[in-house]
Write a structure and sequence with these properties.
- The chain has helices at 10-39, 45-64, 67-74, 82-108, 116-139, 169-177, 180-185, 191-215, 219-225.
- By secondary structure, it is mainly α.
- The protein has a single domain (10-225), classed as Four Helix Bundle (Hemerythrin (Met), subunit A) (Up-down Bundle), CATH 1.20.120.
- The chain is globular, with a radius of gyration of 18 Å.
Length: 235
């Protein structure tokens, strides 16, 4: 379907883009603090590698993403589904735990030192997963941080790019890149919060899909063309 041009004024888009920029910068700073405070040192090479790749991805995305989509991610949301508020709120716990556990693992040596190939495998898993999320965001002007029907933006079904293959490619990308993070850090214990995150993503996928079927015009017909939520021929 054709992407509808933004309804909101240009000044509002700019304001929300600025808000999103601040959110991302704060997230990077907090992530950095959590990692190095938990590890008890700053000479942790794989934390720096992760942060470097993370920041590079942010810079690339800032160039390739549509302004109205970035603005949506920065705006104060209306009519967010109540169940999504619970899932996203609870989801902060395992996200923070993933970084804390990784840092503590490095500090106390819970996981035996891993080989270079384990760390590189983490990057090989992480980068394509993030790339899939970015592709989904480029293809979907309504890709938001919250599950809501964006009546204020003329919400329509996204059915181009990876959405021709599965209905929730962004979530698939998250499921792919999440286990790559413990591998990059070299922490086996960090797989526990990573697993919890993956379970939450699968639950959110199911609930969001049901919400879109019942509330977004044209989505039910889209599900008849693209049958699978996350994995072709499986689910």
């Amino acid at each position: 379907m054709e992407t509808q041009k933004p309804i909101e004024p240009v000044d509002s888009i700019r304001k929300n883009i600025a808000r999103r920029f601040i959110q991302v910068v704060v997230t990077v700073i907090i992530t950095t603090i959590i990692l190095f405070v938990s590890a008890g040192k700053i000479d942790w090479i794989w934390a720096w590698v992760y942060l470097g790749v993370y920041i590079l991805i942010i810079m690339v995305n800032a160039v390739i993403f549509k302004p109205e989509m970035i603005a949506e991610r920065g705006r104060k949301k209306k009519n967010v589904e109540q169940w999504d508020k619970l899932i996203t709120g609870f989801g902060l716990i395992p996200w923070i735990a993933l970084y804390v556990v990784s840092g503590l693992d490095i500090r106390f040596g819970w996981t035996d030192e891993t080989s270079l190939w384990n760390h590189l495998t983490g990057l090989i898993v992480f980068i394509p997963g993030v790339a899939l999320v970015s592709w989904a965001m480029v293809s979907n002007t309504w890709f938001s941080t919250s599950v809501r029907i964006q009546y204020d933006r003329g919400h329509k079904v996204a059915d181009s790019g990876p959405y021709r293959l599965v209905r929730h490619p962004g979530y698939l990308g998250m499921i792919i890149y999440t286990p790559g993070i413990p591998l990059i850090f070299g922490s086996l214990w960090a797989f526990l919060p990573a697993l919890i995150l993956i379970i939450l993503v699968i639950i959110r996928t199911s609930l969001e899909d049901s919400t879109l079927k019942s509330k977004l015009e044209g989505y039910k017909e889209y599900t008849e063309r693209v049958r699978f939520r996350l994995l072709p021929h499986i689910w």
